[in-house]
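Final report, results section. Input specification for complex C-07:
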Amino acid sequence: MLKTLIDAFALISTWEVIIAMFAASVYGLVIGSLPGLSATMATALLVPVTFYLSPIAAIATIVAASSMAIFSGDIPGALLRIPGTPASAAYADEAYAMTRKGQAELALGAGVWFSAVGGIAGVLSLMILAPPLAEIALSFSTFEYFWLALLGLMCATLVARSSPVKAIAGMFIGLLVACIGIENPGGVPRFTFGLTDLFGGIEPIPALVGVFAVAQVMRAMLTPEPPPLPRRKFGSIMAGQWKLTKLYHWQMTRGNIVGIIIGVLPGAGADMAAWVSYAMSKRFSKEPEKFGTGHVEGLVEAGASNNASIASGWVPSLLFGIPGDTIAAIAIGVLYMKGLNPGPTLFTEKASSMYAIYLMFIIANIMMIPLGIAMIRVAAYILLAPRSAIMPIIMLCCAVGSFAIGNNMFGVVTVAAFGVIGYVMEANGYPVAAMVLGIVMGTMVEQAFVTSLIKSDGSILPFFERPVAAILAAMAIGALLWPVMVWVWRKVKPAQPAAATSR
Amino acid sequence: MRLPDSVTGSFLVVLGAAAAYGGWILPPVPGQPVGPNVFPLVIGCGLALCGLAIVFGIGHSFEEEEALVPMEDGQAAAPPPQGKLYGLRALLPPALLLFYVVAADRLGFIITAAIMVYVTSTALGARWKLALPLAALSPFAIHLIFGKLLRVPLPAGLLPAPW
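Structure output:
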């Protein structure tokens, strides 16, 4: 144990890792603070760069950039009422109300401080939860993996803030995309339409870049430019944070726990965590009437929650290759490329790498405090950059980055195609996160499904025979039937106002 | 590009049916009951069912209309012009990416990238005072990072980078 820890320290105390982390932190802070550029997009655009780094440095950039971006999304939320990332949308109104009351320092300080605390709580959950779960997972057979993957996919559809039918459809589209190529049980070209470029299948990373980055540029083409940030002087940012911690320690803990749970659930990430925690904070608050008028309590809980979900999203990713959120989906792609294939054995064979990941998360969250304060102070200048200067650069990065993944132009075509797909889906209420999950998990789901079917000789019964498999099956089927039950319930009781039942 | 549910749903039905059929006609693996054909079949059927459900409006009641945040102090942004061609602007980014695919090898990275940057920037409302310097400088910056530091083989074409 001690030796692994020392090894882990040795792994991360190289100049490459330190520089990579610092640069990625600054990058994450800047991208996160620009309205319209999300944390997922920041991570997706980082991937081509990670090719050229060592495995640990590659993961360091993702860890640092994603943690920072989730925090810095609070900055334009508080100052402009425009959330920098979707994860800050839940409490942007509240934070802006505080700014109007002259408490911008307190709102932003709470953002930094409780984000850092939340992030560290998330890492602790990763450290505590992952090893025992890995123990259990070692005895899993393909039946369990099949149900687990299905459960993950179903969770993603349950938590989507849209129609569950559309979410399931989105998931199926993703799985269908994963069918393309010759990497299937028969090794025959499937849905390749005679194009050799499709033989290798659709790479998840260009697809993700298209869905999250190109689609965003497409949306920017049709939306008006956000107003520039008014310049202002800030007082002390961290003053009063310790008092808040003592006053709202219970809210903070609850936010951490909710964030961890939502992070672990596949498909649900930081934005969902923030919405749920903000709603919970209001529901259980002693003074709910103050919410919406610039009250810091909800900020504390939601800020603690969204950053906690970032780290805990790595739990299912590292253990099963099932992404906890869209950022983790990208991380899985990088893990595979770097030879750290997700799975329970990762915790025994590559234990020092795992410890290195924990350490990097902790360091990133500590670094967030000074860097975050610096970012708040210079935000006014960064936010002066007009969208018409940023979006073209994003476009170039999309083109070059997707080309770099395989050094062929087909990657660029993939990015363009998925930009259109992502844009159309989003515009019509189909959640793209569900499709992303389908693409990332497709091969694994099919392998588990077909291998199980071959083992069981076409019979369905063995899918339920093993105890763990039966439990997972019950949960997955329950998740599938849940929207149906809610729907029936609403039909039976039409008098019930819709707001009461919708989450 | 908000389409009625009946259109997207019907499209999914067709896509699902095509996937199921495409899976169906795949050759089975000899001596093995399940092969590459099963998974597309299952997914295609599922997708078609979802499409049907969407056409008939099942689950529509779950959808939350996205709350647009209104601006404070009456400084509401003017509603964007809603001409017929306005919606097509959204297709500009993917079109530019395809242009990159076609043109990069012949024109070279620097020139293609400069055109992309200029067009995107102007489309987003930049004046030439911003768009021109941006188009002139950013391709070199990107080339420096990706081509020089990360050794991505970017095409040289007509105008090779100076390093």
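The first helix of chain B runs from residue 5 to 24. The CA atoms of residues 95 and 101 of chain B lie 10 Å apart. This concludes the modelling results for the funded period.
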